[in-house]
Amino acid sequence: MGTKVRCYIINLDRDTERWHFIETQVKALGLSYSRIPGILGSSLSDAECEYHYDASTVRLTTAEIGCLKSHMLAWKCIAEAEEPLGLVMEDDIHMSPRLPTLLEQFDADTDQLEIIRFEAFPETIDVLRRREFSIGPYCGHELNKGHSGTAAYLVNKITAKTLLQRCKDAKTPVDHAMFNRSVGYNGGVRIIQLIPAPCIQDDCVVGHLKKNFLSTISDRLTYEKRRESILKDFLRPAYRSLVSILLIKHGIKRTHARFM
User: How far apart (Å, rounded) are the C-alpha atoms in residues 259 and 50?
Assistant: First the structure.
């Protein structure tokens, strides 16, 4: 593939199994990549952690602070790299074999403050019905409201620099800082979701391909824990269809970013 996109993979030194898992994938797909040594929250000093605490909000765990600082390190690398675009990935994702073709054909606006989410997610999302772009089976839709997860996302240099500057004193988890409008770190940044999505985190995988990696952020819920009752699972498609009909007049649709 070309060199306009480099992958930046966040990996803790101790997580050698995860690194073998993801490096095997990127090599097989022929992707350009760099390893970002993840920052272990428990290794941070009290002063470093205190900087990200806020008495008026839920106190971040040391693992969440380490995760935030790890992503900031990836943004710094993107801002300083030769390639105009960087795909940040956490080390427990499964990648679609279509990913190299998608990246080769990607033509992101390098002057736009923009985060493009490559991550599939089991929960529903609200997006604008208007397509921002389409590449093969993948379509980009702007997110209408905040979302969680930082397993795979693409940013350009100007966005990486902006996030780095704004989040240096962030007091929320990195995904909240990036995707939640109410916390004030991502003003003016357009957030695009790929539908379907070419990457999926291991805890969202079902079946024999699942690796059962332990979470490096212990207080985050696994996909199994997020699953609701059988009755709600049965009723959800009808409810989602009804909501989607009601949202049409606002130019919004409720959908899933499934893995493909």
Answer: 38
